[in-house]
Design brief:
One of its GO terms (biological process) is response to stress. The protein is mostly helical and 155 residues long. The chain has one domain: Orthogonal Bundle (Arc Repressor Mutant, subunit A). 66% of the residues lie in helices and 12% in strands. It has 6 helices and 3 strands, in the order ααβααββαα. It has a 3-stranded antiparallel β-sheet. β2 and β3 form a beta hairpin. α2 packs across α5 and α3 crosses α4. The radius of gyration is 19 Å and the shape is globular. The two termini are 25 Å apart.
């Protein structure tokens, strides 16, 4: 027989519920603002930001998917939609016939360059300004600790 669930105690449940509600509310508001301000979906923004910030405008599809914690199929569908609108292009990988590079097009680079300043202002207004510098530093350390913990655990 399976062991009974190890339920969260009241303090743990409050912390978890508030974290989830904060995250969902923040992401929802930021997603709506990106859409309103730039016409891009939140997914468009995430892909273009990852390509330009982490990949110099060019990344392998699988690396791009991993960088945003998406499944390969989700990234592939998103890239297909973005390619139809001219925001990204696929380039074949010369040393891997099955692999592809995703490249931010000039239109994609312009779109993210125009959207990013507004996005960061919304991040500042909704998130940064809610915390003192000490709280922000503590949250950064706590977030890093959870990320490091998850890195050590199998998926």
């Amino acid at each position: 027989m399976d062991a009974p669930p190890h339920w969260l105690d009241p303090e743990q449940k409050v912390a978890w519920d508030n974290f989830i509600r904060m995250q969902e509310t923040l992401i929802g508001r930021l997603s709506r603002r990106v859409q309103t301000d730039s016409g891009m979906s939140a997914s468009d923004y995430i892909v273009l930001a990852s390509l330009t910030e982490r990949g110099g405008g060019r990344m392998r599809l699988l690396d791009l998917a991993k960088s945003v914690e998406w499944e390969k199929s989700r990234m592939s569908h998103q890239v297909t939609r973005m390619a139809k609108r001219g925001l990204v292009a696929r380039e074949e990988c010369p040393d891997d016939g099955r692999g592809a590079f995703i490249v931010a097009t000039p239109a994609g680079c312009t779109a993210i360059e125009e959207a990013a300043p507004q996005h960061v202002e919304h991040v500042r207004r909704l998130f940064i300004e809610a915390l003192t510098p000490h709280q922000l530093s503590t949250l950064g350390r706590l977030s890093k600790r959870v990320l490091d913990h998850m890195e050590r655990l199998p998926d």
